[in-house]
């Protein structure tokens, strides 16, 4: 059985779900947040130590302002309501991506990270204003600036994911097969699962099916 330490997820399909079911894209984001909570529980149940969720990409700024504001309000309210509970459950929250939001949100994110920084049961990496190419460019620039050798170990030193294993599994919901600038370096050997369901319809059973399939997959890492 393959060990499973890190799952990364592109939570796609909120907008389509919302339009189809409630005539509003934002209703889809709200429903998507309930799925996030279900998946966190199932991740803990399976004793997985890292969960990386793509919540907002560097490209998502192109969306209408109203939708962007809705998403960040949702996040703000979620953290205000749930950070104590996450902390009690020994969950660590880490933001990956550049925190260039309102002062209020930046402070809340910093506070949430600090409060939970010692927790070891599960680390949730929330990708916000994250883009893989920007992350890699930053790492290469650091190497050049410090005149360090360009090799795998050194490149990793300056990535947001420097302290964690690479994802074993990448899941993308929403019936779309693309990577959308997400963890391009880190998923070199990940098992990729494209799921037809839209994110709000995805549930713990679908997730567990993927976990089981992954565990019994033969992973070669270039060997035979
Ligand atoms: C992609 O669906 C989803 C997002 C850009 C946002 C993800 C946000 C959530 C799951 C809920 C909020 C989470 C937190 C942690 C506050 P899409 O809108 O691109 O869907 P579409 O492809 O159907 O348009």
Would you give an account of this structure?
- The protein has 224 residues and is an alpha/beta fold.
- The chain has a single domain, classed as Undecaprenyl pyrophosphate synthetase (3-Layer(aba) Sandwich), CATH 3.40.1180.10.
- The protein contains seven helices and six strands, in the order βααβαβαβααββα.
- Helix 1 packs across helix 2, helix 2 runs parallel beside helix 3 and helix 3 packs parallel to helix 4.
- The longest helix has 24 residues.
- The radius of gyration is 17 Å and the shape is globular.
- It starts with 5 loop residues before the first strand and ends in a 9-residue tail after the last helix.
- The model has no long low-confidence stretch (mean pLDDT 97).
- The chain binds farnesyl diphosphate (FPP).
- The site of farnesyl diphosphate has 20 residues, from helix 1, helix 2, strand 2 and helix 3.
């Amino acid at each position: 059985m393959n060990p499973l330490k890190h799952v990364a997820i592109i939570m796609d399909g909120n907008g389509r779900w919302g339009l189809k079911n409630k005539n509003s894209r934002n209703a889809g984001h709200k429903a998507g947040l309930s799925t996030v909570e279900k998946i966190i529980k199932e991740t803990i149940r399976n004793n997985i130590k890292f969960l990386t969720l793509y919540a907002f990409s560097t490209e998502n700024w192109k969306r209408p302002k109203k939708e962007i504001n809705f998403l960040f309000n949702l996040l703000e309210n979620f953290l205000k309501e749930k950070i104590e509970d996450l902390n009690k459950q020994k969950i660590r929250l880490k933001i990956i991506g550049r925190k260039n939001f309102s002062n209020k949100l930046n402070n809340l994110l910093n506070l949430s990270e600090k409060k939970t920084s010692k927790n070891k049961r599960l680390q949730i990496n929330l990708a916000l204003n994250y883009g893989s190419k920007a992350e890699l460019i930053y790492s290469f620039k650091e190497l050049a600036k410090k005149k360090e050798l360009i090799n795998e170990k050194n490149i990793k030193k300056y990535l947001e994911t420097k302290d964690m294993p690479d994802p074993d599994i990448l899941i993308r919901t929403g019936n779309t097969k693309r990577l959308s600038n997400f963890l391009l370096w880190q998923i070199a050997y990940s098992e990729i699962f494209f799921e037809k369901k839209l994110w709000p319809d995805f549930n713990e059973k679908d997730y567990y099916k993927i976990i089981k399939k992954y565990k019994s997959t033969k992973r070669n890492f270039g060997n035979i």
